[in-house]
Amino acid sequence: MSIKDLEKSLKIKKLSGWEKLKSSEKEIFEFSENYKNFLNYAKTERRAFDFILQRAKSCGFKTVDKADKKCKKLIIANRGKSLALVKVGKNSIEKGIKIVVSHLDSPRLDLKQNPLFEDAGVALLRTHYYGGIKKYHWLSIPLSLYATFIKADGEKMEIVIGEEQNDPVFTITDLLPHLSRKSQEDKKLSDAIQGEKLVVVCGGIPILSDEDDSVKEGIKLNILKLLNEKYNLIEEDFLSAEIEMVPSFKAKDVGFDRSFIGAYGQDDRVCAYASMEAFLQSESSDDTIVALFADKEEIGSDGNTGTKARFIEYVVSKILEKYFNTSSEFLLKEILFNSKAISADVNGALDPVYQDVHEKQNAAIIGYGVCVTKFTGSGGKYNANDANAEFVGWIRSILNKSNITWQTGELGKIDEGGGGTVAKFLAEYGMDVIDIGTALLGMHSTFEISSKVDLYETFRAYKTFLNA
Q1: Domain that holds residue 139
Q2: Tell me: the pLDDT tens digits for 391-428?
Q3: Position 343 confidence tier, pLDDT thresholds 50, 70, 90
Q4: Residue 206, helix vs strand vs coil
């Protein structure tokens, strides 16, 4: 055997997904266009929930309360922020189910409960950032407002401002460079912009009155007057509201060759979209399969819509109750223990400008296919799920049989940081679970970059898993 043949047969050969899938370029670009439409609509977890709910209903899925036993395609919702899609299979459920879980939330700015104030001729809104952000990303960019108000009488009102062409937008001002040396430039990057200074500009005209008496906080009062006239809101309504500020720009192709997608919220809506489509397009499986879409991952999966709320237990219990006339706790535990799961979450691609924070031999490269992450966590694999070799081997086998372009990856050098996903919370049930998702550039920024070919291979990988 020649050296070249030996090298070919023994060494890992990384191939660009574009080289491997050049005959599928049309499908890749079409799939990406639909994904961009999803991103433009689903800029919050509530909007992503609505999109998936309507998409599932259009494919014949029914909510669990409206489905009879003949209907094997279910929607199980949780408070408008997380949901599960279920296809009930023919096999004995005791042998376990297949689960793909992604999350719908992304780093953002939330308004505080009492946000509106006036200072120096400007009406402003106080924010509390959500998830891991670099605060300077949020300065001097156009922002859209997504609000859910629950009024005193229980009426629910949804408001979106900043997405239509003629809508006003909002912004957070940055300090001019002429005055920023001591306030910003001489400080560490993490200290240069304080969270309490992430205040949103929302108005500047004081209330107009024929009365001679000056009005205290006239600009704030005018904003409240406008909100009352248009939406019948009062200031107290902010106390029972969820209001998110997100970048107002749309998803765009990036590069002369349009090979990349740039958009806000791709962590983790890139995996959510891919898993939704993989699930809905999967063939009839003998196994029961579940696509789970969670909330609160960016803040540790806490809260009653996060993975720690044990929603998967509720989902499986509903299946048992509806189709098997049982709610046995032991059976529930046995099913979850025997299950297989993919934590559908992104990884950080090797950044061509900041390569020193990565260990290149074990970093994912953008455009080289879906990324399989055996373990997450930080330092010495703390707070990590670490998939066993047997399960990694099974995943490797099914991906190779389907000719999926895939690679492995770690989230940076060992001592640089790290991160976690929902995988460890599923692993607590004893099931096999591994992270598989799209590698991004600029992760957690306001304009994350994904490769269209990686998105497509992520979709194909999830579909392969569900059909295996």
Answers
A1: 108-247
A2: 999 999 999 999 999 999 999 999 987 888 999 999 99
A3: very high
A4: coil
CATH number of the domain at 38, please.
Answer: 3.40.630.10
For residues 89 and 114, membership in a common domain is answered with no
* Rounded distance between C-alpha atoms, residue 407 and residue 421, angstroms: 18
Within-domain flag for 201: yes
Paired residues of 347 in beta bridges: 439
- 389-397: long-range contacts at Cβ-Cβ below 8 A with a sequence spacing of 24 or more? 390/432, 391/340, 391/432, 391/433, 391/434, 392/434, 395/434, 395/436, 395/465, 396/372
Q: Is residue 356 part of a domain?
A: yes
Q: How does DSSP assign 98-160, residue by residue?
A: EEEEEE----EEEEEEEEEEEETTEEEEEEEEESS--GGGGSSS-EEEEEEEE-TTS-EEEEE
CB burial of residue 403 (10 Å; 0-12, 13-18, 19+): exposed
Q: Are residues 346 and 439 in the same domain?
A: yes
| Residue 153 scores a pLDDT above 90 | yes
Q: Are 221 and 296 in the same domain? A: no
Same domain as 410, residue 430 = yes
